[in-house]
Amino acid sequence: MPLNLFITASFFAISKPVKWRFLEMMKKVIIFDNKALLQKVEKQYFLKESFDFIISIKTNTYLFKTRIYELLYN
After folding, report:
1. Is the pTM value of this prediction over 0.85?
2. How many Cβ atoms are within 10 Å of 11's Cβ, its own excluded?
3. CA distances from 74 to 42, 48, 57, 64, 71 (A)
4. H or E segment to which residue 41 belongs
5. 73: part of which helix (H) or strand (E)?
C-alpha cells in the first residue's frame, strides 16, 4: 500500500545546481508512515550548515516539518 505523501520543497535564493543536487538526494530518502521509525531514520543523517531547505511531509496521520541542510549518508 503506497504512502499518501505530499512532499513540497521551498527554495529561496538557491541556485539551480544546488536545487538539482537536493532533488537527487531526496530520491534516496526513505520515508516511513510511522513517527517512531521516521525519527529513527532522521537520526541516521547528519545536518550540515551549507544550504537551507524546508521540507513539509504530510501523511494521513502526521505532518512533519524538518529543516535539512545537507544529507550525508553513512
Report:
1. no
2. 15
3. 12, 14, 23, 23, 10
4. helix 35-42
5. none
Q: Tell me which residue of 18, 1, 8 sits closest to 64, measured CA to CA.
A: 8
| Cα dihedral value 15, 74, 30, 42, nearest 10 | -90
Closest Cα to residue 22, out of 73, 56, 69? 69
Q: What is the mean pLDDT of each run of 10 residues along the chain (74 residues)?
A: 37 51 55 50 42 44 42 38
Pull the grid cell for residue 3: 504512502
Q: Cell 505532518, residue?
A: 63
Residue that the C-alpha cell 532533488 belongs to = 23
